[in-house]
Structures
1.
Amino acid sequence: MSLKKLIASAAVLGAMLAFPQVASASEAVLLDSNVFNGKDVLVISDDSLDGLYFYNYEKHALYSYNEDTNVCSLIYTVNDPSPHIYSVGDKLYSACSDGVYEYDISSKESTKKLSINDKATAVGVDDQEQIYLAVSDALYIYSPSGTLLESLEYSGNTIEQFYGFDGSTGNFYYLTVDNWIYSGSNNHMNSLHVGNFDGETIILNDNHLLYLCQEYYFERENQVRLFDNKYVFYDSTLSNTLAYFNLNSVDAKKVNTISVKKILDRTNTDEIGSFTADAALGIRAVYNSETNTVLAYEDGCNLSEYDMNGNKIATVKTAYPIYELVEYDGGYAMIEKNGKNYYYEFLNYGKPSACTIELGGRAADALRVNWTTVPEADGYILQSKIDGVWTDIATIDNNATATYRVEGLKASTTYDFRMCAYKVSGSTKQRGDYSNVISNTTNPYMVSGLSIGGRAPDAIRLNWKKNDSADGYIIEQYIGGKWTRIAKITNNNTLTYRVEKLKPSTTNQFRIRSYNMVGKTALYGNYANITGTTNPANISGLKIGGRASDALRLNWNKNTTADGYIIEQYVGGKWTRIAKITSNNTLTYRIAGLKASTTYKFRVRSYNMVGKTALYGNYANISGTTDPYKTTGVKIGGRAKDALRLNWNKNTTADGYIIEIYKGGKWTRVAKLTNNSTLTYRLAGLSAGTTYKLRIRSYNMVGSTALYSVYSNVTGTTYTK
């Protein structure tokens, strides 16, 4: 088992601590005294490096460290009596008497970047790999290839060390030794300054940001560190505090005062009242951007977590005083110092593994996120990007839960999600690395307002409300035991569809859903369902089946799709129902109480009951005219031996009259009178002393059709002489 794994498996201190219990003194591994023998050693750790590296300032030598075997191996030596060193990422830069060299720790290759003719006092490299070279009275800035970009001569105090570079503002932070007059005495002070290079102009300000320590504490190295491109942390022996200020609060042109926030006061118990060459050195702190907290050594073998206001959250014990603390391989590497000896310990910060997320389901107002569980996690934190910023939206306090439904979302809207597992240490949720990012779009809203907008015996019209979240609509019908698409509408402004070729008086099931295209993928809203029954078939064979002077009879064919029939008459300028026939077998209806020789309008439609709702076929229309009235007052108005005269009353409903005589076993027309004012007719050529049967009926012309009244009969006998 590796040393790191061995230490990581040590028991936790308790539920109130934010960090696991680190190893006891017996688990702190003694480091090679040949490496750690001198004024101080630089500890190098970077995500791009495989392992830890130590640079011994006195030997000018770089060592790699194998934590499994606890072996330090020499990999690079700077062959110069007093080089100036700067480490960034996986590069080590040295300013020597003849030039500046870059050593790539990963590839173990050394490259001379530029030649110099003056003795360097400090070297630094910014995040663009531009080289800052300070000499006693000038600052030179070179490109990564060694081309001089800009230089500035200055008369102030010499730049002794570079502490870091802020790529967002162009600021750089450096150390000078200043003269501080106090109570009439001169005191040499290590001071922190800020400069600026905007790509064209170098600015150096004589005013310092703050004092770091007095001359007799000069052994104390690495007093300043930039964290997360946000804060400048400093460990001041002058004020005995660990404090910080915000990078964005510093203007290199106007250095007056800066707003300092204290993290903790030093007690100096490890230094026994003074900072000697044997004391633990430098910042000995790391910043956690996920929790916005600081893990800092506070003396007395105490390693504590603080928030950015200096409030202590939790504490764990270390084996010995911490000499240097760096982030390493998901935890923290601690180089500890006890007397002349140096030790290595690893603090597992409890960072769980990353999970993988995927889309688990969609709705118009929700998205479901699924993920792979992380056995060592206590739970999970889900984030969504809101206004361009990753924001926590859910905390799942169960490591076995592998799904979460994000609700309250907008339809047809794309959302980004990512997730991390976390482990609980005291009141702190230590986050693991974030998962992959998924971008998913919600479904469009469900179609609303779906209704039957119209019916016919062979068709049904569907209507619905506009869906702004959709590109269009899909319409399906239930046919033959399954749902079948019958229409795709590609415009969300189209809000109606007529389903044709249906059967009369038949119930049909329909459903509609909205869709939205995301690239080539269609996202669908939930179905809205509706049932609609077609109207019965229209009436056929409607005709006038009989007439009278006061009545008309309507006949029609049987409608097998109907429950019955509705008959209406046009009366007084409007259609009025005159009959409801509740059996589809009844195929005739007599309208009585009418006026003679009068034309009437009728219409008939079938109906079918669906529950309590009546569905109607289209109207079949017909017009019918009644017969004229029967002729009244018919009598024998005169006789002769060869003739008879008929008389009758005037019929105002008639156009004229038809007169018939019964002869030879049948009725024979003898006259058609075309004027209803003619009220008499003489039948001549008769036989004397003979009785004759006569009849008369009125008629009325409707177009070319004659309508007749019933007959009025009379008998008359001619004279014998």
Note: The CA atoms of residues 538 and 617 lie 5 Å apart.
2.
Amino acid sequence: MFPTRRAASIPLAAPEWSRPLFPPVALLGLGLGLPPHVLSQEEAALLTTRIFGDRLAGFPQFERVFANTGIARRHCARPADWYAAPHGWSDRMAAYRQAAEALFVQAATAALADAGVDPAEVDCVVVSSSSGFAVPSLDAQLAEAMGLRPDIERLPLFGLGCAGGVAGLATAARLAAATPGRTVLFVTMELCSLAFRQDDGSRANLVATALFGDGAAACVLRGGAEERAFAVIDGAGQHLFPRAQDIMGWRIDDGGFGIVLSAALPQFLQAHLRPALSRLLVQCGAEEERIGRFICHPGGTRVLAALEEVLRLETGSLDHERAVLADHGNMSAPTVLFVLDRARRAGLPDRAALTGARPRVCRQPDQDAAGGTVTAPIVVKLLATAQRLSELVIDRRNRAALLAQGAREHGRGHYPWMVLLHVGWLAGLWSVALGGASGPPGSVPVEPVWLAVLLVMQALRLWVQATLGRRWTTRIVVPDGVPPVRTGPYRFTDHPNYLAVAVEIAALPLAFGMAGYAIVFSILNAAMLAVRIRAEDRALGRRQGPSPAPVRTIPGDRV
């Protein structure tokens, strides 16, 4: 969405492309709302430690996460002791309705006063909230108390999440643009703290306790340009990122909302935001070089750093965003309007752009008959584990037959370390899959390019096994009097199996966005292969050193 001399807003995730341009809409007023309870970051960390206790032993980065969020304090709908007790759907939604009603009135009253608009002048109310719900909707329940007319139009929005501030404001602007002089009140409130789950020890839930706070914001808009407006909105666009539902959002189960929060979010923005942004700017008839300020949703310090890179801004340029994050945490949808309030008080440029990224609301993951979660990342890791186990079975059978024929085994000293390396690699991948920082089991999206690379390497490994047949083994077992294999993949390299393993060690973690993990285990694997290949070459007589076996033999990855 685009205000001129004032504010431009681009909702960056929504169900469909929308017509971006419309007649000017005056942004007359902006009001904010905060719940009464304030929790410092230190207090939040202590409360989380008190609740989760020994479960934090599996999350060594816990203290560092709280220290590195850039958050000093946040406002919460309930006092700290409320979060230390267990809660179900009923009391969570009762707390939501009570706190959301107060925030609605606080923010809407402030916005109307700022605009100099009487409540009876409001023709339409748009409300965005994704952290709770009420039926009838809050705008209906509060209309009479607020002094709104009985014939107002109402549009409650649910599921927009963090983008609700921008996408909801764009929807309100379109409604105002439809009729000159039409006055629209937009209100968004989120009570993320009420979704805090004591029964969820995942890293995603623990990270959420360090990030999210509660708040509300409201805007008053009117179709047409007015001198008293502090901004004029003249365009908006939306973009849906496919296959992004596991990056951020809610899952819904019997206990209530549960956070879906992928550690890959900053990398996702860096990879996908620039093309979408460029297209949106073209659709809105806006030239990027004319935009004096991007006003962004501050999802976190890493997200802000990624946005500065994508938007080609100097580090630290998103200063209002960092200030709001420090004072209030990530309040989801209202947060970007808190940034807009600071930007307008500092002085808006001739043209600005509001941006927000939208999470998705997901149902409880599909489960099998035993109750276990079945998702694509879990399936990929199951297949990798099954492959390793099947190879051990094949190795045992073939090795026994080769030794019975008089073959000799070499490199026994390093083999247990090689097994330990692969067990550790798989165990680390499973620990992330079953409760890592990325959210609930399987919530990390699989990167298709790396998955394709992984599949190619699996084909290579099967080719090796098919070429060697009964002579394939995971160890260096050298039969006497048998010439080296020169068919199949061995026409191109002496060690095709090791090539496949090396690529696999890197490709599987990279398929889940775990670049650091891939680098660490690739280095360890390279060191192991250096020992392994040296031992094999000695067994084959390629290097000087003890070699009890004849030269005309088959190397370890060929038997």
Note: Residues 4-20, 358-375, 434-444, 543-556 have pLDDT under 50 and may be disordered.
